[in-house]
Amino acid sequence: MKTQTAHRLATFGAISTAIAALLAACSSTPLPAQKADTPTAAPAQAAIDAAAGEPPNTPDFVASHTARPSQAPNPKAYRADAAAHLYALNKDRIYKGRMPPLLYAIGVLQVEVGRNGDVEKVNWMRAPNHAPEVVKEIERTVRAAAPFPVPARMGRVVYTDTWLWHKSGRFQLDTLTEGQD
């Protein structure tokens, strides 16, 4: 009986991980790009490295920070810039290390960022409806992080990322996840 239960839990964990990976692989269609005379795109890793400076996570900073430009040529590359931006503003809320096999919530959120880095729209592709407080907190976190990096090469962008939410209230984004046990 215990073996059957352990097997069911392992199967459920594997299926949940596979579904999360599938959802994370979904890509968004960019809005029509405006012509921009900008230099070639910096690699996505540069955006992650830029977050290493980790600006202070104070209300004054969050309310007054200015958007830096992103040279990402497409939504997938922009996603790394956006994730680094969110991590820099929420460093004390990021789950450190590998996530446990069973998470409290997983959500896939599509964010539309305007030419000034403003969040124009959020759209849940897969909302964690069993945890409405998580839905509200993720939306609040995204909106509070505006302005996002300005999508200089695209004019505006719609990108998608998967939020991995631990029961402690800490999270990782699939783009920058440290993996799962």
TrEMBL record:
Alphabetized UniProt keyword annotations: Signal
Stretches the record annotates as Disordered: 51-75
PROSITE patterns to which the protein is assigned, alphabetical: PROKAR_LIPOPROTEIN (PS51257)
Domain of life according to the entry: Bacteria
Extent of the signal sequence: 1-35
Listed name of the protein: Protein TonB
Lineage, opening ranks: Bacteria, Pseudomonadati, Pseudomonadota, Betaproteobacteria, Burkholderiales
